[in-house]
Write a structure and sequence with these properties.
The structure holds two protein chains of two kinds. Chain A is built from eight helices and two strands, in the order βααααβαααα. By secondary structure, chain A is mostly helical. Chain A has one domain: DhaL domain (Serine Threonine Protein Phosphatase 5, Tetratricopeptide repeat, Alpha Horseshoe), CATH 1.25.40. The chains are: A mainly alpha, B alpha/beta.
Chain lengths: 199, 136
């Protein structure tokens, strides 16, 4: 079973990972974006950990809902509403249970990913965070480690794709050959889940 | 002069200057009618390029006179942030809606229509219709 503390540690692990990888995310965002993905997400997840520490939400759903709200209000780029919606919708789907099992979490995360696809209009293959999140959700039933591998492979597989959403889509064929920064940060989020397991 | 409550208009841009300037343009072309509440929500709170959910929420609250709020956004995170706030349900005034319209032309149409005393549906329709005006 997964309790509020598990989800708090997931967010803290994501914040640490985003902080470590911020320069790489920004470097990936330089040729095809506006070179702010790492710094934007670092600001967002720093606010998430501060809010979780201050408010200590009591349930898994409340942890993710608060985290999502922080991302929407602090990131300042498109990844804010996208990741914010992912976490908020996942949190809302978890309801107010004190603990949830892995299957409930997998279903909630799928609802979150669906909400992101609806918000941004992106489908798999558009060279976005969905290319890491969708395969991760598909493999979540096999454990967090399997989801992590699927997300990382999904992120790497965005390199040969042509961007069809967001600023990178303005570049057309010139977006080919670069790994998508959003898919890369989405893989960090899922990897942090695997790191949080078993503590 | 209409005695109805006016529809509010919020202009969300990646740039504070763009949002302010478009608001000023729309007010000016509406005859400088100050009865129409127009608020700009441009850039981040720190003054950089980007989108601030808090600035958008504050702008929407400031123009809400009870007749609805039409929100126009330029691109990318501006659009996504408004949609995310609307989807959350409690962040924007109840009768706020994102209007699918070209930013500058739609803003002018929205403010002029609101100044004429129209309701939110009519303001939205006028802003959307700005897409149909071809320049070539």
């Amino acid at each position: 079973m997964l309790d509020a503390d598990f989800f708090r540690r997931w967010m803290t692990a994501t914040a640490a990972s985003v902080d470590r990888e911020a320069d790489r995310l920004t470097a990936l965002d330089s040729p095809i974006g506006d070179a702010d993905h790492g710094s934007n997400l670092r600001r967002g997840f720093t606010a998430v950990t501060a809010a979780l520490e201050k408010e200590s939400p009591p349930t898994p759903g409340a942890v993710l809902t608060l985290a999502g709200r922080q991302l929407i209000s602090t990131v300042g780029g498109a990844s804010g509403p996208l990741y914010g919606t992912l976490l908020r919708r996942t949190g809302k789907a978890l309801g107010d249970a004190a603990e949830v099992d892995e299957q409930q979490f997998a279903e909630a995360l799928r609802a979150g990913v669906d909400a992101v696809m609806q918000l941004g209009g992106a489908a798999p293959g558009d060279k976005t965070m969905i290319d890491a999140l969708a395969p991760a959700v598909d493999r979540l039933a096999d454990g967090f480690g399997a989801a992590r591998s699927a997300a990382e492979q999904g992120a790497e597989a965005t390199t040969p794709l042509q961007a069809r959403k967001g600023r990178a889509s303005y570049l057309g064929e010139r977006s080919i050959g670069h790994q998508d920064p959003g898919a890369t940060s989405a893989a960090l989020l899922i990897a942090a889940l695997a790191e949080t397991e078993g503590k | 002069m209409s005695t109805q409550k006016p529809v509010g208009v919020v202009l969300v841009s990646h740039s504070a200057q763009v949002a302010e300037a478009v608001a000023e343009l729309a007010r000016g072309l509406a005859g400088g009618d100050t009865a129409v509440p127009v608020a700009a929500a441009g850039g981040t709170e720190g003054g950089g390029l980007g989108t601030s959910a808090d600035l958008i929420a504050a702008a929407a609250a400031s123009v809400d006179r009870g007749a609805g709020v039409a929100v126009l956004a330029d691109l990318g995170s501006a659009v996504l942030t408004v949609k995310a706030l609307l989807a959350e349900g409690d962040e924007l005034p109840e009768a706020a809606r994102l209007v699918d319209a070209p930013f500058v032309e739609g803003a002018v149409a929205a403010v002029v229509t609101s100044a004429a005393g129209a309701d939110l549906d009519a303001v939205e329709a006028a802003a959307k219709e700005a897409y149909t005006y071809r320049k070539v």
